[in-house]
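Working notes for the structural subgroup meeting. M.R. asked for a predicted model of this chain before we commit to crystallization trials. I am recording the input and output together here so anyone reviewing the notebook later can reproduce the run.

Input as submitted:
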Amino acid sequence: NDVNGQTIGSQVATAPAGGTPTGIATAGGQVYVGQLGDGIAKVDTSLGLTPLVLTPGFTFEYGLWGNPVNGHLIASTSIGLVDINPITGTWVQIGPAGVFVDGVTVSPDGTIAYGAYTGDQSIRGYSLTSPNPSTPVFNTGFLGHGPDGTGVISGGLFNGDIIVNNNDGTLGLINDLTGVETVVATGGSRGDLVSPDLSNGTLLLDQYEGVLRLSCGANC
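Returned structure, recorded in token form:
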């Protein structure tokens, strides 16, 4: 249930994933899960999994996000950042091949895919409308807090800005025009996965001690 203060025993349903699920996203009203070193599957209401057949294939890594405009999936994979049409199973290379990317997200207008590049601790954005994997359209440069899971704010004062869940237990707000990160929360354990709550616009954040909910207040 979508309420705060729950324990692990509060789950309303559970099912074996058959692997290690490291990313969950909703695209086009359908929930998808990515399995580390394996594939991506559709999740039905009873938590049954139906693998996507992708042509050609690759393995999933850590980041998965739904494009709010066209229902595509943006995924961190063994071949880099890709844009997947889950209906047809076709995909397009977005980020550089062979470069590890972690948490991913998409701009509110569906034109830029962002990824956390842990090798140089940066957030980079790549065009979804004119893909050019060798040239990012956005690059923060070195951030220093261990950027991991990312989410984009849609609407209000911070429209288009990026929230990053950092490995050092901080949360950062990154200006989508300047690339400057402002630390907006401290005291966590180790930030990693994030996922949007589409019912109210908040962002769910994984830490060692639990899953936290971030909201950004009035007019946001």
